[in-house]
Amino acid sequence: MPIRIAPGDRLTLDVQLAPANPLHERIPDPDPEKYQGIIHKEDWKNPFLIVRADGIEVVGVTNGRGPITVDAVAEALESLPDSAWPYGLIVGVEDHDASASQADRSRIKANRESLNRLLDKLGVVDGF
After folding, report:
1. Dist. CA 91–CA 84, nearest whole Å
2. Which residues contact 87 (CB under 8 A, 6 or more apart)?
3. Which residue from 53, 64, 65, 92 could staple onto 48, CB 3.0 to 4.6 Å apart?
4. Confidence (pTM)
5. pLDDT band at residue 19, thresholds of 50, 70 and 90?
């Protein structure tokens, strides 16, 4: 609904906006002291993403349901409880291309590039 204001009149609005990045609102920045000594992915406690030719697997979340699209990763990460982020706003990411065909490697690369753009947009660091 338009609001008309006469010349010289003033209008003050009190508007509450939703945060642009719900993850950044809840989860602190990464704390390297909490994860710098981790060498094996099995020891990683924050979310871990596996980039596949057919999408992204969020370990512990999408297991058994198949990979999800890159676009669905934001919702999957936002749905995780604060306790899933002990190191702060950082995830582990691994490409699943060890035995992939050349065509699958190309799709993995494209998914990884899309995922990197999404993580940057969310303010999530790729740290493993």
Report:
1. 10
2. 30, 31, 34, 35, 45, 46, 127
3. 92
4. 0.80
5. low
